[in-house]
TrEMBL record:
SMART domains: X8
Record bears the keyword Membrane: yes
Identification of the protein by name: glucan endo-1,3-beta-D-glucosidase
UniProt keyword annotation of Transmembrane present: no
Annotated family: Belongs to the glycosyl hydrolase 17 family.
Naturally occurring in which organism (per UniProt): Cucumis sativus
Length: 523
């Protein structure tokens, strides 16, 4: 009995000393991971094929407002990198495919690229990674022999700048480099590509960089309709009979993305690589498609991205690696409306180029990421181009049968000015929209209204959506915070678990010892 108590004592002592000193290693070895990057995150890809895209400064303000802390660019846009200075937003920059040849053949070119696109901005702009090329092995196979030399040249330039421990470097792959992905335990890399993949994985293992994968459950579902349930692709709860079960491992898969991630882990294991983490550089669901894409709908896109965010924030890992949750970048932040057909190509975004949401994500309770605007702070206003008589008719309906509260737009009231139909209609539309709980279709008015994330309040005129938000702020407490009533011990325990030092650690120590001492007596 004494031996077991001694063991228990030293176990608690070890855990206390280890956690209080913050010595648990990061998941990716060899790279100094910032405290804010220790936990899995959800980031967004930002494409450039967008008409009326926000200016770089407005873009950064929008990212801050949406609590977006990680972004990925497909280039090294200098204006955006300058605007990001001091923002604490972490950005992955990219080497376009058309630059691989020059960098792969010339160390001097690679060094110049790092100097121009990394050293010139870091650390004021938090460049966290470099993605070299995009799906090179499958889209331009003739460039495959140059991929690793280009990556190594850039890495050597990072070493020379003493930035190799702060910035990871890798290359995004298409899911098609993995063959036989279902069940995951049978997955393996395309044998014709192993001559390029294995040396790359060895490099990633040696440098502590992730395997970047573009994983789209949407395409898996579309290619396997009737085999893969839609709910499985959308992260919806499944009855056990509909879960995918790997017959070799008996692991149960409740969603397609986890199965795709594990297929990458099993493929790496087959090559004796077991210490490289998967980073999902692209995933998403289109909100609109043509006649051949009936599942590209707003409802499905909303379900996929909302549930994806919750899944990552839950940090439940995958069935094969429950201890590791892959971070993901949603494809994409804005609809790239300038893209060529099919229709879905222009409709992967969470927002339109002017920052209004394409649909309202349901991410309440999943931290702060994208919680602003998409779930709470949205407003309904009149569109810019309208017929005055038609808009007046819609205004009359909102204030009459629609039972919107139009008191504030009456003569002499605070929202009467400016005295025009658009201003009054916007207020009435927003009143109706908020009254109806911002449900689908409540901001339409026969095409005369639109949802916006910009507060239309002006002067002393406060729109209904803003009034509602202010009331909610006063009445609720952020559920992610530890209430003050829980006392200093709870705060100390929170910091202790997070590996941070705190004056409350003494209190935690006292509480732990108060449990241990009775257990140890008599010795």
């Amino acid at each position: 009995m004494a031996d077991s108590k001694f063991s228990l004592f030293f176990l608690f002592l070890f855990v206390f000393l280890t956690v209080s000193e913050g010595k648990f290693p990061p998941l990716i070895k060899g790279v100094k991971v910032d405290k804010d990057d220790k936990q899995p995150f959800v980031g967004v890809n930002i494409g450039s094929d967008v008409s009326n895209l926000l200016s770089p400064s407005d873009l950064v303000s929008f990212l801050h407002f949406q609590k977006i802390t990680h972004i990925r660019l497909y280039d090294t846009n200098p204006d955006i990198l300058k605007a990001l200075k001091g923002s604490k937003i972490r950005v992955v920059i990219s080497v376009p495919n058309n630059q691989l040849l020059a960098i792969g053949y010339s160390n001097t070119t690679a060094a110049a690229w790092i100097s121009r696109n990394v050293v010139a901005y870091y650390p004021q702009t938090l460049i966290s990674g470099i993605s070299v090329g995009d799906e090179v092995l499958t889209t331009i196979p003739s460039a495959s022999p140059l991929l690793l030399p280009a990556i190594e040249s850039l890495y050597n330039a990072l070493v020379a700048a003493n930035l190799h421990t702060q910035i990871t470097i890798s290359t995004p792959h298409a899911a098609s480099i993995i063959l036989d992905p279902f069940p995951p335990s049978q997955a393996f890399f395309n044998q014709s590509l192993v001559q390029f993949i294995l040396p790359l994985l060895q490099f990633l293992s040696r440098t502590g960089s992730p395997l970047m994968m573009n994983f789209y459950p949407y395409y898996v579902f579309m290619q396997n309709k009737g085999v893969v349930p839609l709910d499985n692709a959308l992260f919806k709860p499944l009855v056990p009979s509909k879960e995918m079960v790997d017959p070799n491992t008996l692991l149960h898969y409740t969603n397609v993305l986890d199965a795709m991630i594990d297929s990458a882990y099993f493929s790496m294991k087959n090559l004796n690589i077991t210490d490289v983490v998967v980073l999902v550089t692209e995933t998403g669901w289109p909100s609109k498609g043509d006649s051949k894409e009936p599942y590209a709908t707003i409802n499905n896109a909303d379900n996929f991205n909302s549930n994806l965010i919750k899944h990552i924030i839950d940090r439940s890992g995958t069935p094969f690696h429950p201890e590791v949750t892959s971070s993901v970048y949603i494809y994409e932040l804005f609809n790239e409306d300038l893209r060529s057909p099919p229709v879905s190509e222009a409709n992967w975004g969470l927002f339109y180029g002017n920052s209004t949401p394409v649909y309202l994500l349901h991410v309440s309770g999943s931290g702060t990421f994208l919680a602003n605007d998409t779930t709470n702070q949205t407003y309904c206003i009149a569109i810019d181009e309208f017929d005055v008589k038609t808009l007046q008719t819609a205004l009359d309906w909102a204030c009459g049968p629609g039972k919107a509260n139009c008191t504030e737009i009456q003569p002499g009231e605070v929202c009467y000015q400016p005295n025009n139909v658009k201003n009054h209609a916007s207020y009435a539309f927003d009143s109706y929209y908020q009254k109806e709980g911002k449900t689908s279709g409540s901001c339409d008015f026969k095409g005369l209204a639109m949802i916006t994330t910009t507060d239309p309040s002006h002067g002393s005129c406060i729109f209904p959506g803003s009034k509602k938000m202010k009331n909610n702020t006063k009445e609720t407490v952020n559920s992610t915070q530890i209430p003050e009533a829980s006392g200093g011990a709870a705060q100390g325990l929170k910091l202790w678990i997070n590996g941070e030092k705190s004056p409350y650690l003494f209190t935690c120590s006292f509480l732990i010892l108060s449990v241990l001492i009775p257990l140890m007596a008599p010795w």
